[in-house]
């Protein structure tokens, strides 16, 4: 069973500058009014620092374009539903004050349908920054608590530097499809058409200790166009870490029902596992190995780069769970992917009844000893219906099973695999590859039998220190300047934000 989703309901960021150092709004906010909320306040007050308001909702009802609401330290057992929009250059900002810890706590609060304890519906130019958001939970089936929920349509929404944790649905899954036990940490659902949710930034957040059932930690789903998911830490959750989704009928018009034109960069995702998650339909305790660190399921036109994905079930997956629908034009590059229980990078549908992965690019990634639970999926796994994908410039070091690539599907076509560096504990003669239903043992046998990897190497990549998970290259590494310098796909930066090409050619792997 693949990691399911529950609850059916132009790479141009015109006014946004995205750099390796962060995200910058195009214009400074015009001087609006600054308000304050404190646990000791009173909504009859003026909302000043000396006479603050008491409730978040009162502040939301008052704040207009250009205004900033600072929330003083303390615990607020309240919901926050944004009432107004900002305008270009005049956003509405809700933020913690200075270094104080402002906690929005959902303990005991009800959940109605799919609902965020911070809820943004049909809003533009809104910023949520610096909150701890926690303990929004339910044991009731078919309702979905969300830490921060953005939905409808809207634009220029920034969710930054928040700590979202202990958002949980602990209901018993129901029905043959095991739905009803769902939650999200941060969710963006574009539920209208043609109006989208666009120009969204999710940056610098920590999202952890979630009980999600068949849903995801951080998700962009439906009619979401132009987004950046940057420098977040997502960990220790019981389903998918970051998910970019299409074709789940979140948008009322299928032509708009794909998250698209996005960047997923600089995130660290770890300890994401569906083991012991009853929504995967196995008797507990189970070992289902179905949760991805980073997943694109039906999305398109998105770059996934400079991320660390490790100790998850699957490192990164580019797939489609929807028959007849394709995940397409996804570039996965310059990522460090290591010690995941199943495959490091997986492409295609999990069964013949799923959709396809077409015209994607997997380049300059470093994959180290994934398939750690000996699932037989290797470092890269070609599932059903993977067509016209490019796999180049990747370092792949096998786990103890010596399996590097698994492709046991004869219908896959047009995939280009070359300029990679392979290594395995058993050496070149014992390393194995699966290709179109045939298993090849030995590097020479594999190349001869498949016509893949004519320019590839089988050699120790000479990492700096595998004991400390430092997969940068030593100065004598054979991966240096050994890749294909295809500027159309390799990008301009490596895992550390350094220039992608520094010598006579590009390195193989994530590190330049």
UniProtKB/TrEMBL annotation:
Residues annotated as signal peptide: 1-30
Domain of life: Bacteria
Domain DUF1565 residue range list: 40-81
Record key words, sorted: Secreted, Signal
Chain ranges of the Right handed beta helix domain: 185-366
UniProt KW Cell membrane keyword: no
GO CC annotations, alphabetized: extracellular region
Localisation: Secreted
UniProt GO molecular function: carbon-oxygen lyase activity, acting on polysaccharides
Record-given protein name: DUF5123 domain-containing protein
Originating species: Paenibacillus ferrarius
């Amino acid at each position: 069973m693949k990691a399911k989703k529950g609850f059916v309901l132009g790479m141009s960021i015109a006014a946004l500058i995205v750099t390796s150092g962060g995200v910058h709004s195009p214009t400074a906010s015009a001087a609006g009014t600054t308000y304050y909320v404190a646990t000791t306040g009173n909504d009859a007050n003026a909302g000043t620092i000396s006479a603050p308001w008491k409730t978040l909702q009162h502040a939301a009802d008052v704040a207009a374009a250009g205004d900033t609401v600072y929330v003083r330290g303390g615990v607020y057992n309240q919901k926050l539903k944004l009432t107004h929009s900002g305008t270009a250059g005049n956003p509405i900002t809700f933020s913690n004050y200075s270094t104080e810890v402002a906690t929005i706590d959902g303990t005991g609060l009800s959940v109605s349908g799919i609902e965020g304890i911070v809820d943004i519906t049909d809003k533009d130019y809104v910023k949520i920054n610096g909150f701890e958001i926690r303990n929004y939970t339910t044991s009731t089936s078919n309702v979905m608590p969300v830490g921060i929920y953005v939905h409808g349509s809207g634009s220029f929404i920034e969710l930054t530097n928040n700590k979202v944790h202990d958002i949980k649905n602990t209901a018993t899954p129901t029905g043959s499809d095991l739905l009803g036990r769902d939650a999200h940490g941060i969710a963006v659902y574009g539920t209208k058409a043609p109006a989208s949710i666009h120009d969204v930034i999710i940056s610098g957040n920590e999202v952890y200790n979630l009980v999600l059932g068949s849903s995801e930690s951080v998700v962009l789903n439906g009619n979401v166009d132009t987004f950046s998911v940057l420098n977040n830490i997502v960990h220790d959750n019981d389903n998918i870490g970051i998910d970019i989704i299409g074709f789940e009928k979140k948008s009322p018009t299928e032509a708009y029902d794909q998250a698209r034109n996005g960047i997923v960069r600089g995130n660290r995702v770890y300890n994401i596992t569906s083991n012991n998650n009853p929504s995967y339909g196995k008797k507990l305790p189970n070992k289902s190995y179905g949760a991805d660190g980073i997943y694109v399921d039906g999305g398109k036109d998105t770059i996934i780069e400079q991320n660390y994905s490790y100790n998850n079930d699957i490192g990164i997956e580019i797939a489609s769970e929807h028959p007849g629908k394709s995940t397409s034009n996804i570039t996965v590059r310059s990522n460090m992917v290591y010690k995941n229980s199943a495959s490091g990078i997986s492409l295609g549908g999990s069964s013949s009844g799923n959709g396809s992965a077409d015209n994607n690019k997997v380049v300059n990634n470093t994959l180290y000893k994934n398939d750690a639970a000996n699932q037989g999926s290797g470092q890269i796994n070609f599932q059903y219906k993977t067509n016209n994908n490019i796999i180049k410039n990747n370092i792949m070091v096998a786990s103890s099973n010596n399996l590097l690539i698994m492709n046991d599907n004869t219908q896959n076509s047009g995939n280009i695999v070359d300029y990679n560096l392979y290594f395995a504990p058993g050496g070149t003669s014992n390393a194995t590859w699966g290709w179109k239903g045939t298993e090849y043992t030995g590097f020479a046998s594999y190349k001869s039998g498949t016509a893949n990897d004519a320019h590839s190497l089988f050699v120790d990549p000479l990492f700096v220190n595998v004991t400390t998970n430092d997969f940068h290259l030593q100065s004598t590494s054979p991966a240096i300047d050994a890749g294909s310098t295809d500027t159309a796909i390799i990008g301009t930066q490596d895992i550390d934000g350094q220039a992608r090409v520094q010598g006579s050619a590009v390195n193989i792997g994530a590190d330049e």
